[in-house]
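User: Can you fold this complex?
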Amino acid sequence: MSEFEYLRNVTVGQYIPTESIVHRLDPRTKLLAALFVALAATSTRSVLATLLLVALLMGVTRLARIEVRYVLRGLLPAAPFIVVLMLMQLLFQGRFSVCETVYWEWGFVRITPCLIELVILGALRLVIFLFLVSLLTLTTTASHIMHGIETLLAPLQRIGLPVHEFALANIIALRFIPTIAEEMERIAKAQASRGGDFGGEPWWRPDRMARARLPLIVPLFVNTLRRAEELIVAMEARCYLGRKGRTKFVDLHFTGLDWVVIALSILLWVVLWRTPWPTFT
Amino acid sequence: MNISTRSIVVAGVLIAISAVLALTGLGYFPVPNVTASATIMQVPPIIGGVLEGPLVGAVVGLVFALDSFIKFASVVTTSPAYANNPTMGWVAAFIIIFLPRLLIGPAAWWVYKSLRGGNEIAALGAAGVAGSLTNTVLVVGLAILLQVFTFEIVAVVIPQAVFEAILAAVVTIAVVAAWKRIETGRGGSSV
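Assistant: Here's the predicted assembly.
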């Protein structure tokens, strides 16, 4: 039955109230810190530095009193994809490699230190991004994230961009992610009970995989749009009129700790970016 | 800019579907070539564009862009053209990955709007194909233009592009046709 457990592996969009120090931070602080850590992850080409970043994020997860295992579980569904991507990079990217040292060469396959570095870096960055998004949603309520995004993007409102609407759409999305994963489980079980076959297709036959997934994906879209319709009626019945004349229940304010966290995350970015970390080349 | 409650909510749920497809891996099919995967991640922006217009299509496309950026940016930044200039590599990755995804929804909307006067089903199919091809053609075109891949990649990508376009057309027709019937109260089954 494990092939039907989509919800168990979707850690993004679920909030775990553990009242930790990470939970108490201002949502804007967490959004900005996540941005700087993402920048740090993308600005270094060192596997060592990237591994340190993964360790740091695991530390922050423990600080938030959340099981690291729980966050890592979110990687499981993407694992086959990551493995295939790594394999394809190893097979096809080697001939573009700029490294002079070659470990192994056969036809167009060329394994170099730079290539191995690239493949490991790609996988580690994926883990970092998953950690960032999961940590943000596991430690911050949906409404706080929305207010955080809206406040941070407020300057763009002056040039006519629909910031409030964008933030609201994102918060609806965050609220719906677990619901949709649950819906997907229900549809998969319903289709399987009618004789549908999921997960039995060989990975090298994308056409068969697509045919097997269609009875899952089409009802998912239709059922979700039906839920959306209910939400639209509920919002309009409560006279939702967009940002015009709207007041806020949540009042955000920075504390000293928030400034320290922002400063540290900027420092982390600069250190990872400017330090000549050891690389494979 | 006046945006209806309907547009905001539809954008929200389609972003959520995109995220679930990305997080569960159901939006990708492994294929044995340099791209490593064929995808149906272009379908939510196409449906967003067809149902609620270009803005919703573009916003929903952002999730696909973000997911691709996380997964594929390193392929661009470590290509020989940018190996010694990582900053330009990131700029190129941003252009190659974000621009096409933002245009999927608007392209689907434009094709659907132009053709819906005739056969509605054909218009939906054409919108699916147009959205999917916008993604493939622009990603591959920009990658060649910005020297990440050579022109040889086109031969590798054509079968995949056809596969993705057919899949996008099938899902778009199935979903939007079913949804519009529900909207007009002519029934529809629930699972």
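Strands of chain B lie at 28-30, 37-39. The CA atoms of residues 112 and 120 of chain B lie 8 Å apart.
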